[in-house]
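W.,

You were right to be curious about this one. When I first looked at the sequence I had no strong expectations either way, so I just let the prediction run and decided to look at it fresh. Below is the sequence, 291 residues in total, followed by the output.
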Amino acid sequence: MKIKNPALRWLYEYGVITLGCAIYALSFNWFFQPNNISMGGFTGIAQIVNHYLPVLPIGIMSIVLNIPLFYIGVRKQGVKLLISSLYAMSVGSLMLDGLAAIHTFTPMDEPLLACIYGGVLLGVSMGLMLTVGATTGGTELAARLLKYKLRNLSIGRLCLGIDVTVICLYALTFRSVNNALYGIVAMYISSLAMDTVVYGSLNAKIAYIISARSGEVAQRLLGMDLGITLLDGRGGFSGDRKQVVLCAFKRSQFAVIKAAITTIDPNAFIIVCEAHEVLGEGFGEYTPDSL
């Protein structure tokens, strides 16, 4: 979301961060901690430390462990990352310990439900913060830094790799293979939810439309305020020259576009593909710090 007014933009960004922190604390205290499922990342490491030294709160330990990563992050991405992420880490950790202090959630009868819903809530919380350039540190910040070197991997996949490593250490510490396996399931679901939040607005579909009335189809799509590209093609069987209409559009527009094309030419040949990321007018835009 683009907000020109600096004050409103600041309120929006920190409102999103605060909401993300609240969802993060809820997911941990409701689904992960009472069911002994590791979250991975530095929170997972803090769980391991807390197991051996119960006097050290998990939230405070998370802050201490994040200090070296924040130092590297500021050198890479500047002070803005430091301020927003310090706020996210501090508020998230305080909410995590605060919620644990005022309410104790009981373990669920079915750990798989805890994996699914905990993973979804965790991924949504992390994704929300990443969309406004903040993280709670740990896995998300490490993934942002790794993204500079591993551009071909999504932020969710990078987080998943880091989290699985921590969860394996968690399994060795608690001698619980089942809970570690549940943790890996939760982290996988979390990575999918995170990618959906972070890249959801950039996801789209691409249609290749082959029609004898391609000119009319192109004009109709242009009239719907859609960008198109005309490609030269040749029929493999007939050898006739054809124009192929290439069009990128958002998922919600598919039914309307399909109806418009088939109204003009019921025999039109339409190939629809998934586009993981579309940049340009009407979609996202690239910045050097893009995830």
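Here's what jumped out at me. The radius of gyration is 23 Å. And, maybe more interesting for your project: Residues 147 and 153 are 7 Å apart (CA to CA).

Coffee later to discuss?

I.
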